[in-house]
């Protein structure tokens, strides 16, 4: 008996619904899905995934970073491995699909291949990465860095809000952190890494497309700006004589917004503001801002940074304000492999959909996996582009479309056909 693509898509939907129950937040007061690394919810999810994988005839293991890996084995001797997966962890009160969709879709792919007796000349390892978001330990890309061989032992010293270190949490989870270096894959063993993920934006919905192909993952940088003014009585200091730090902050926010709107392939946000003395009748003396810039082209992002700092310096000086600046984070953009992007484009076309190539404005496990192998990424449409929120939603039929694309991609990889 054969299995249809629609049946595989429906099974993916059922698995996603079941996975969403493994959450700290399961009631009407605490909405959404909250699942962090090395917690009871993580353990319960891995137990369910293990059951589902084993029912598909996969061999299953957990590595020492709490990644779960299920293998759909090839009959070919000396076969290499196609890695497909995403992360199981969520942001607080997140949605059902960010991360988990990329774990479940390859299981639906394996189901389809198995039930239709489709053999491949490579293994498929489905990976549920333990921690991409970094919610608990601020240790972003933990799971993928381990597989890529770029894990830094210092990450084990990071502690959560209760003082539990990552090392202690992994040990309590049944892992042996000292053996993490042995869990890396070798480049010669791997075909490539593929990740399916909800778009987390509105472009596919606006284009009425179920899926899209990602050709780059954005570069990110973050800054802290502390603006220094002079506190004073809000009723007695004349407006022309004020040195109001918050007014300066408002000007910087305007500059960030204007720069990003007028620059192609650039987005940015001022996401956090701290104001002091923060009194209702006191002129603000210091205001601290976080500034984040993102672009799939590092040169665009770096030029924007320089221009923003020059504009902020001129604007704040004109207001009689000084400022301190520090860059707190930088992650270079990552380009998806051209041949793999082209393969996914053809797989989308094979599925009867016009391929749309786009960049990801969010970070993903591919940022780490690129140090191991070529990477490719498939986006799945999400309703109104909402993500990192309980109202995150997808359409069931888009799961079927995504499974079909993965099937065609595997067939193309198996045949060795170059992209058209």
From TrEMBL:
Alphabetical list of PROSITE patterns matching this protein: ARGE_DAPE_CPG2_1
Keywords on record: Hydrolase, Manganese, Metal-binding, Zinc
List of residues binding Zn(2+) 2: 98, 133, 388
Ligand binding (Zn(2+) 1): 87, 98, 197
Cofactor entry: Zn(2+); Mn(2+)
Any one GO MF annotation of this record: hydrolase activity, acting on carbon-nitrogen (but not peptide) bonds, in linear amidines
Binding site for allantoate: 222, 281, 294
Cofactor note (record): Binds 2 Zn(2+) ions per subunit.
Subunit field text: Homodimer.
Family in the record: Belongs to the peptidase M20 family.
Record-given protein name: Allantoate amidohydrolase
């Amino acid at each position: 008996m054969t299995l249809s693509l629609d049946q595989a898509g429906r099974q993916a939907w059922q698995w996603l619904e079941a996975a969403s129950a493994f959450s700290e937040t399961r009631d009407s007061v605490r909405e959404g899905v909250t699942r962090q690394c090395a917690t009871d919810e993580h353990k319960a999810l891995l137990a369910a995934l293990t059951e589902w994988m084993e029912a598909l005839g996969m061999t299953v293991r957990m590595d020492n970073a709490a990644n779960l890996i299920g293998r759909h084995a090839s009959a070919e001797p000396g076969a290499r491995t196609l890695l497909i997966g995403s992360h199981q962890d969520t942001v607080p009160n997140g949605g059902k699909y960010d991360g988990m969709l990329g774990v479940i879709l390859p299981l639906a792919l394996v189901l389809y291949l198995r039930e239709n007796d489709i053999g491949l000349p490579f293994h498929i390892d489905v990976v549920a990465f333990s921690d991409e978001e970094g919610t608990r330990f601020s240790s972003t890309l933990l799971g993928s860095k381990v597989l890529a061989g770029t894990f830094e032992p210092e990450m084990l010293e990071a502690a959560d809000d209760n003082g539990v270190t990552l090392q202690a949490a992994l040990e309590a989870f049944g892992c042996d952190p000292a053996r993490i270096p042995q869990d890396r894959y070798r480049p010669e063993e791997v075909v490539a890494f593929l990740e399916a993920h909800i778009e987390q934006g509105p472009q596919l919905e606006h284009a009425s497309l179920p899926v899209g192909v990602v050709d780059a993952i954005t570069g990110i940088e973050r800054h802290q700006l502390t603006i220094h003014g002079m506190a004073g009585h809000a009723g007695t200091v004349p407006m022309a004589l004020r040195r109001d730090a918050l007014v300066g902050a408002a000007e910087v926010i305007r500059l960030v917004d204007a720069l990003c709107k007028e620059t192609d392939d650039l987005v940015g946000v001022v996401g956090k503001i701290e104001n002091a003395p923060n009194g209702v009748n006191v002129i603000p003396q210091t205001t601290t801002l976080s500034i984040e810039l993102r672009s799939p082209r590092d040169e665009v992002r770096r030029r924007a940074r320089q221009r923003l700092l020059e504009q902020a310096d001129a604007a704040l000086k004109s207001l009689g304000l000084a400022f301190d600046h520090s860059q707190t984070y930088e992650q270079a953009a990552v380009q998806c492999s051209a041949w793999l992007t082209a393969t996914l484009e053809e797989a989308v076309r094979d599925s009867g959909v016009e391929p749309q190539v786009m960049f990801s404005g969010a970070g993903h496990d591919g940022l780490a996996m690129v140090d191991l192998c070529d990477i490719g990424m498939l986006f799945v449409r999400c309703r109104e582009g909402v993500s990192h929120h309980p109202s995150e939603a997808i359409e069931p039929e888009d799961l079927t479309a995504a499974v079909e694309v993965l099937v065609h991609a595997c067939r193309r990889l198996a045949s060795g056909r170059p992209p058209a």
